Batch of 2 targets.
Target 1
Amino acid sequence: MTWRETDQKGVFSRPIGENETFIKLVGDAGLPLNREHWAINSAATITPTGSLVSADLPAHFRRAWAHLRFQHPSLAAEVAPDGTSFVYTVPANGAALDAWVSKTFSVAEHANSSADVIPTFRPSPYAKLVYIPRSGELLCHTAHWRTDGIGVLLLLDALLALASRPLPLLDPASLPWGTEVDRLAPAVEDAAVMPKESTSELKERGAALVDTFSYAAGALGIPYLGDAATLPAGTRSTVLTFSPETTEKIVAASKARGVSVTAAVHASVGGANYALADAAARDKHYTSTIRFALRPYLPEPYSTPAFAAGLYTTGWMKRIEAQSTWDERVQIYQGEYRKGITREFLDSHREYAAQLGAMIRSMAPGGDSPPSDVDISSIGIAENLIRRSYGTPEAGFEVKAISVGVEILSRQAVTFVWTFRNQLNLNAVYNESFHSADQMMEFVATVKSQLLEGLGVRDS
């Protein structure tokens, strides 16, 4: 499943991997509405320093974006018309490269922030970069089949490293186009050297993982607006940022308990689902996702930022019961995160993803009670992926904040969790047709109160 040149010179192709197929099926559910479920939206809020304060930043980022494509050509890969393979075309000349950049880079001059831009996104064959001058944000948007939340932050890191180089970037048309194809990202099945042929044992392991998705049936959810026929509108988000002092206390209290901050927040997200649920639904179990980045478990170079534009993530579902306490939940989640990823799991993953794809294809349209839970996705310490500053005080950028989220077209929502500049962040991402800003503000505030109470921490 490696990339190969087709009969057409300069055009390369490979089959879509099983994990990519599953994620693509989820995203494609929004296509009838001209939307893409789970498409990734991640941003870095930057401030230029020194000579870059007076630079033409839109032109500067446009050129850096073209260079980023040379480093990460999978940004320009697209789905072939047959829907079963990806295609990448080497730019034939400077005009072809400039045409791609014009399609994928834009400046949102009239937007106040990424919150104004994200609801306007529509499906695109390629990744996109939007510079928002009023907020100083660089917003990267891409289909989820291309990469994951960690990958997009790594791409923003590479972009800012390019944009802060001491010498001016060369005309991107002068780069040795054609050599970049060696950096096209493989499917995770090939990167992890997963068995190509399935066996009864692999099928059994895959089925056991797929069975965890049955926990979604009859699970707890929070109230939503409209009914089963209500169509989605724009994706919105509500962010809660802890102070550095409170964040330090949370980290220390989690360590003292022998649990990760992610497990502690996960327990609190579960608790907030119960707190906001209708009283009659609070005897239901709560189901959420245990997510893992696969990058640390891949051989080099696929474990490195050089392959940021690849989908290398996984997860499974976990159920907790209504009677569980915060202390019980945090230990359950810590146990799941402690498992890590084994070679046995990796060997089963091709079969797991293939069965998930089959499950998605066979699912009937949503019934009268669509799921409306709030899930969790943790990025961890963002500085492991993107720096606080680039270049020098004489010519560089300070990264003041970052954000991570996805397009949401369902009644479900996701709380994204990360720490940056010593501050813990909760970002509840939801669709405005189904949830109000007030409700989601209450949700993240409840997560905060449960987290502080559970850890015995006082807010500072």
Target 2
Amino acid sequence: MDPFHLPISYSFSNFVTSTSSTSSTMNFRIWSRLPQRLIDRILIFLPPPAFFRFRSVCKRWYSLIFSNAFLELYLQLSPSRHWFIFFKQKNLKGHIYRNATVSSSVASIPAVRESSYEGYLLDPDSSKWYRISFPSIPSGFSPVSTSGGLICWVSEESGSKSILLSNPLTGTFIQLPTTLRPRLCPSVGLNITNSSIDLAFAGDDLISPYAVKNLTSESFHIDGGGFYSVWGTTATLPRLCSLESGKMVHVEGRFYCMNYSPFSVLYYNISSNQWSKIQAPMRRFLRSPGLVESRGKLMLIAAVEKSKLNVPRSLRIWSLNENGGMWVEMERMPQQLYKEFAEIENGTGFGCVAHGNSVVILIRGSEKLVMFDFLSKEWSWIPPCPYVIGNGIDELHGLAYEPRLVVPIMALLEQLTLPFSSFNAA
């Protein structure tokens, strides 16, 4: 396992002031005798901000992130943290239509950056926000998906898409081979395990310099067994589909995405390389529907606005059953909270993102966020991100994110993409 290198300037910025705790004197004679391996196990369970703060204590602790033995222990014992990461983004498709020109292929990464990207981490358990920068990501890329501790960045320029996978905690990234078909703003799905990666791009095929159509999808696969397909697997999308969300959700070997006009759910079966359609619940009365994955299940979140008086307006959460053919309503926002929500939202729309037991709903053009906890069955407003000042131009887009110091698939990607990188450079 290759050592991981952190940029010197890397730091977490925690806006929330923690409550002062009563100071207690630690008995040095006891704590100094703890075995180093036991200390390592304790450090592994620290949350990421605390982990990077402790590295300034001594040389040994600083060097742990370069230690293969520590990283292997980290892989075995580190707890899963169901966090979220948010980015300020413009309406990407409209931005591209206005500013981008068609290019045949974007094979190289721009050498000059205009500004550094910034993300905002949210710990749903404590409702604390942290700011993190991405100084190594070049300009002209947007974060579109996350999985397995990595963030997928895709080039904004129309044409064949350049792709970066980055680890925010280590500051490292790797470039994947560019897609084969020219696209404008495709829907993107990503699924990463310790031994495999699946990446899919769908829709927004450029059929001329001034027109797009949802015609095809293409996929990328690499696994530890030695099998790989570098954008060689293509499939035809269902006729007259409209993929407006720009993202896909992975559940049990399938990538799901919303289809509009009328509302339905499309899914891509990775093993059979085929697309299929599922009817959406109450499809004629939905507004701002979105798909999320939570606890291994596909869920649909939408506002319901039925004209009949006996069905009050509400925000609901449905889950797709195991057979994949029926939606079951799981939760409904309390009516009083929905009235507050609807007054702020005022028909502008909203987005949603889920991770673990939490669902976060973001109101477009507002700093307000609502969170639902599946364990406690509680809805609540959460503190807005303190680093974002609403200006009506940028809006927050959220992704599920699990902080990881080490992602084993990165080593495999470095080996298998090296020949393609050399070819692109040529």
